[in-house]
């Protein structure tokens, strides 16, 4: 068994909700985050400070941050695309941000309306201000296993963007299979190529489950020594700027697999299942978690 502590970064309130069409009341978002913070999860990505024209669902970011009941054991990272987003977020008592770019030029343009190189230029002052405020910075690299607009993405560009974000001051990079097209074989090849050049303790995986491969891909990462994985309660999620992308690997399923492999997560799976039922009911959708379905009250 792979016995070790594994950190789970819950991204449901952000990655999960950003793609929901119907307006989710702020109160539901707050209850979702507060429920998750009572489960033993240590990192809960709460919302995004992006343009409300681009992601209307998260336009209530300030309100969400002011209404949650903060558990001192948890950090509540938020996504910021630029200095403007950080400035607004700083007024909300944040301690960690996620900046995001891509290994694919075509996706970067669709998602944040700039080239990869321009994204670094936006991040430089954002990172500088974050550091001045003792904010931890996580960097997302999207499309590591393929792009909905350009197709193949080279291992070289995934490695290069990852290294650049670490050099610029990110303390962790999260490799995103944005559209869930990776397979264990493909992710294994990618990690074999890029991990020798990256500090493994600073690498996380962010696997979407569009093709049902996410848990298999996580297992490959675990085997390579990665100990941080992003997931979303009830498998909520998908990027509105990635055609056909569905949710992240479900937190419930990730915990079940990790505990079954002998890993410690510090998370109470029953509590996460309960929160998953709450949000699935609130959104009037079926849970994307197999474990939640297996354990659903009959
Ligand atoms: P732009 O239109 O090029 O930016 O968008 P701009 O600087 O020209 O500004 C346009 C307008 O947006 C202006 O307002 C700005 O003030 C406003 P106007 O004058 O038109 O009224 N604006 C902002 N408002 C609020 N907060 C801000 C902000 N910045 C500008 N921070 C921009 C560029 C980056 C803003 C836009 O493209 C954007 O917001 N994109 C976000 C897209 C997004 O959130 N995508 C989903 C998250 S990424 C993801 O899901 C992948 C991930 O999960 C990993 C994976 O799965 O791979 C992380
Ligand atoms: Mg994502």
Tell me about this structure:
The structure is a single chain. This protein has 298 residues and is an alpha/beta fold. The protein has helices at 12-16, 26-36, 61-67, 83-90, 105-112, 116-132, 155-168, 184-194, 214-223, 251-260, 269-282, 290-294, and strands at 7-10, 43-44, 47-48, 78-79, 96-102, 136-142, 172-177, 203-207, 228-231. The longest helix is centred in the middle third of the chain and has 17 residues, at 116-132. The chain starts with 6 loop residues before the first strand and ends with a helix. Bound molecules: 3-hydroxy-3-methylglutaryl-coenzyme A and magnesium ion (MG).
Short description:
The protein is an alpha/beta fold. It has helices at residues 12-16, 26-36, 61-67, 83-90, 105-112, 116-132, 155-168, 184-194, 214-223, 251-260, 269-282, 290-294, and strands spanning 7-10, 43-44, 47-48, 78-79, 96-102, 136-142, 172-177, 203-207, 228-231.
Produce the secondary structure layout.
Layout (H helix, E strand, L loop, with lengths): L6 E4 L1 H5 L9 H11 L6 E2 L2 E2 L12 H7 L10 E2 L3 H8 L5 E7 L2 H8 L3 H17 L3 E7 L12 H14 L3 E6 L6 H11 L8 E5 L6 H10 L4 E4 L19 H10 L8 H14 L7 H5 L4
Parallel strand pairs: 1-2, 1-9, 3-4, 4-5, 5-6, 6-7, 7-8, 8-9
Helix pairs in contact: 2-3, 2-11, 6-7, 8-9, 10-11
The structure holds 3-hydroxy-3-methylglutaryl-coenzyme A and magnesium ion.
């Amino acid at each position: 068994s792979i016995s070790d502590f594994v950190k789970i970064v819950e991204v449901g309130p952000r990655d999960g909700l950003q793609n929901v069409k119907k307006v989710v009341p702020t109160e539901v978002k707050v209850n979702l985050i507060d429920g998750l913070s009572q489960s033993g999860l240590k990192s809960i990505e709460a919302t995004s400070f992006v343009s409300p024209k681009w992601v209307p669902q998260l336009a209530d970011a300030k309100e969400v941050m002011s209404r949650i009941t903060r558990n001192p054991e948890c950090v509540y990272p938020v996504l910021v695309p630029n200095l403007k987003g950080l400035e607004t977020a700083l007024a909300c008592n944040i301690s960690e941000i996620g900046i995001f770019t891509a290994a694919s030029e075509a996706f970067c343009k669709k998602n944040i309306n700039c080239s990869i190189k321009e994204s670094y230029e936006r991040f430089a002052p954002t990172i500088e201000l974050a550091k001045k405020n003792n904010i931890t910075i996580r960097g997302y690299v999207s499309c590591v296993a393929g792009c909905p607009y350009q197709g193949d993405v080279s291992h070289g560009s995934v490695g290069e963007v990852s290294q650049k974000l670490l050099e610029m001051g990110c303390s962790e990079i999260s490799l995103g299979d944005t559209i869930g097209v990776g397979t264990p074989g493909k992710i294994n090849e990618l990690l074999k190529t890029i991990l020798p050049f990256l500090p493994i303790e600073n690498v996380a995986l962010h696997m979407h489950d569009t093709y049902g491969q996410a848990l298999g891909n996580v297992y490959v990462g675990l085997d390579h020594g990665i100990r941080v994985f992003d997931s979303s309660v009830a498998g909520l999620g998908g990027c509105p700027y990635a055609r056909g992308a569905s949710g992240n690997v479900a937190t419930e399923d990730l915990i079940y697999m990790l505990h079954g492999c002998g890993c410690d997560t510090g998370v109470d799976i029953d509590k996460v299942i309960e929160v998953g039922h709450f949000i699935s009911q609130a959104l009037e959708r079926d849970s994307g978690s197999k474990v939640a379905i297996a354990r659903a009250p009959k």
